[in-house]
Design a protein that fits this description.
The protein is an alpha+beta fold. It has two helices and five strands; from the N terminus they run αβββαββ.
């Protein structure tokens, strides 16, 4: 019984330390760095999300990963009826490295 608990604790530690933030992280970063002659955002803002769930395995130090949703720039722009995309950001929320949700945030005009 003690061996199982130790193994489970080791697996959780590996999953936790392997993520970007040990307990919680929330970041927003641009998907492009060349903003030369990029128009200033004055129009619509749209987003689309992609979710990830990681389930640690108890027997071996590994995990099962389940992904669903779309984080596509074109999907987010289409949902808002955008005809022109100026730039996009990627927003990421992670909790314990087990739950991760990402949003493609698109800026443009209709």
């Amino acid at each position: 019984m003690t061996t199982r608990r130790t193994l489970l604790a080791a697996c959780m530690l590996i999953v936790c330390l392997g993520s970007t933030g040990c307990i919680y992280s929330h970041t927003v970063m641009p998907l492009d760095v060349n903003f030369n002659q990029t128009p200033v955002y004055q129009g619509r803002k749209g987003d689309d999300s992609w979710n990830t769930l990681r389930i640690p395995l108890i027997v071996v130090p590994a995990y099962v990963q389940i992904d669903w949703g779309s984080s596509g720039i074109a999907d987010a722009a289409r949902a808002q009826g955008m005809t022109e995309i100026y730039y996009a950001d990627l927003e990421t929320l992670s909790v314990l490295g087990v739950w991760t949700q990402r949003w493609a945030i698109v800026y443009g005009k209709q």
